[in-house]
Amino acid sequence: MKLSKRTETLEPSVTLTASAKAKELKSQGADVLSVTLGEPDFPTPKHIQQAAIEAIESGKASFYTQTAGIPELRQAIISYIEQFYGLTYDVSQTLVTDGAKFALYVLFQALLDEGDEVIIPTPYWVSYGEQVKLADGTPVFVAGQESNNFKITVEQLESVRTTKTKAIILNSPSNPTGMIYTKEELAQIGEWAVANDLLIVADDIYGRLVYGEHTFTPIATISEEIRQHTLIINGVSKSYSMTGWRIGFAVGNKELIQAMIDIASQSTSNPTAVSQYAAVEALTGPQDTVEEMRLAFEERLNRLYPLVLEIPGVKLVKPQGAFYLFPNVKGTMEICGYDDVTEFTDALLNEAHVALVTGAGFGAEENIRLSYATDWETLEKTVNRIKAFVENKRRK
Ligand code: PMP
Ligand code: GLU
């Protein structure tokens, strides 16, 4: 069968592929340790599950909902943004989607014409560039320097801006680096975007997962002008351990949101009804489990970080948020005799049965990504196996 040109250049999600490979090896009986997916390992909190059960039993989850989401959830999103961002939006400025991933997908479909450019700082989350391409847009990558904690600067942005630039994506805290932009850095980037009339796509999905003395400033809160230029992308997957429920949302410019709703109306019709009722409870119900899970991630980070530094050749600045470590393994690869990071991660999987994600999928050729959204025993064993793998290769 002759498939579309679109599929010829499409890179499938490396995170999902790595996780699938690990599952396949496991199903063949191999003792695989997987730190691939950014997916909290906690069950969805009980009160949220209960709200879903009630929605099913009452019959209200049986039917299509409004494409943009049930009114209760759009209202809950407004209250949530009011509480955590201190910003007020109208219902018409909100859209509920099948995960934050689909919010981004419909955004690019609504925003881009062929050849329109979107600036994407690297290392980037794996889906941004591919989603831009699926909308016939052109991703323009700007490399955040490791020496600058992987953050990009206005000078770098200005050097790639063209008349075709329409938007810039900002993901802070970042997947995969865990770095967080400061208020001052965001103000500079925001003012530059306003001055050039660009849309800021603020992927705030890890905003509640910040550690130590670090804080998260949503870029939309910096000034009214910046807020007018920002589309907020967020969701319940990460902070409420609800990845499987598939609920995300977008908040921002009314016309843009309406165009996104229209596209969703012709693609998914509506986000799953039962999940929407669960998300209402997540956003409006007790929030103590969010903090309990955050603390668990923080504890793992504090224990895992020094352990990872013990892997020969590894360089890593301590992440500030999200739940990933993105060490530079150039030195480690040299010790083991690899010069390609994907070959290195493939060897780790096939020979040591450690599944993690190649940095290449995030636009970084010297790094690997480990997710610590998994239990401590797995994390500790993972690092020990990597260390043993390196020592073994060194001897050969
Ligand atoms: N943005 C980033 C940076 C992510 O890591 C993820 C993880 N899946 C998403 C968006 C999408 O999340 P979801 O579709 O589960 O809401
Ligand atoms: N965002 C998570 C990750 O980066 C989940 C997988 C995905 O959607 O890519 O691992």
UniProtKB/TrEMBL annotation:
Keyword annotations of the record: Aminotransferase, Pyridoxal phosphate, Transferase
Keyword Membrane belongs to the record: no
Keyword Transferase (UniProt): yes
Enzyme class, broadest EC rank: transferase
Gene3D superfamilies reported for this sequence: Aspartate Aminotransferase, domain 1, Type I PLP-dependent aspartate aminotransferase-like (Major domain)
Domain Aminotransferase class I/classII large: 31-386
EC number: 2.6.1.-
InterPro entries given in the database record: Aminotransferase_I/II_large (IPR004839), AspAT/PAT-like (IPR050596), NHTrfase_class1_PyrdxlP-BS (IPR004838), PyrdxlP-dep_Trfase (IPR015424), PyrdxlP-dep_Trfase_major (IPR015421), PyrdxlP-dep_Trfase_small (IPR015422)
Domain of life: Bacteria
Co-factor requirement: pyridoxal 5'-phosphate
GO molecular function: transaminase activity
Family as reported in the entry's similarity comment: Belongs to the class-I pyridoxal-phosphate-dependent aminotransferase family.
Protein name per its UniProtKB record: Aminotransferase
Native source organism of the sequence: Candidatus Enterococcus willemsii
